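User: Please fill in residues for this 178-position structure.
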């Protein structure tokens, strides 16, 4: 009888340990390699969230170091990182957005409620641009160099340590390059 009780308990304990280890390592899952690193940003021309009569194109990403943030109003993780994006935008980091598979009215409401850190934000309702960028889900953030090349991809929400340890140092390094 005691053996019958112990076997499920041992299995349950083992599964709990696996879950805890998996959750602790989940932070590092964000560093998903991208085949686009070192390549030009994909070509796109997408209406903006702010004004659908205007378009945001890949050409606008040339000549400066910038971030491109893939976001959506329905994305809980996007809300978690949004305060940081507002802060670094106020500090002078150039951020562009691609609103992914979202209703235009929802995207506008979200930016009005939480602030708009984006120079421009494209409205990718079909998700086509997201596919071209190799997006797994929202949020994802890319560092783009002056030549319009993707230099870094961050999958998942950015946290303060990601900004301080990876993104800002890379931006400063890329700005210093001729």
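Assistant: Residues filled in for all 178 positions:
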């Amino acid at each position: 009888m005691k053996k019958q009780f112990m076997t499920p308990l041992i299995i349950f304990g083992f599964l709990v340990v696996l879950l805890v280890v998996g959750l602790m390592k989940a932070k590092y899952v964000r560093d998903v390699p991208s085949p686009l690193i070192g390549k030009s940003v994909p070509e796109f021309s997408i209406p903006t969230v702010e004004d659908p009569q205007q378009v945001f194109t890949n050409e606008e990403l040339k000549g400066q170091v910038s971030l491109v943030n893939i976001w959506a109003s329905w994305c809980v993780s996007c809300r978690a990182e949004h305060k940081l994006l507002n802060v670094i935008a106020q500090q002078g980091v150039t951020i562009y957005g691609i609103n992914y598979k979202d209703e235009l009215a929802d995207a506008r409401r979200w930016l009005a409620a939480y602030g708009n850190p984006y120079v421009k934000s494209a409205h990718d309702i079909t998700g086509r641009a997201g596919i071209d960028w190799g997006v797994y889900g929202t949020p994802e953030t890319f560092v783009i160099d002056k030549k319009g090349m993707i230099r870094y991809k961050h999958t998942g929400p950015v946290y303060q340590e990601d900004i301080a340890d990876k993104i800002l140092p890379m931006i400063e390094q890329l700005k210093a390059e001729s």
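For context: Residues 61 and 148 are 5 Å apart (CA to CA).
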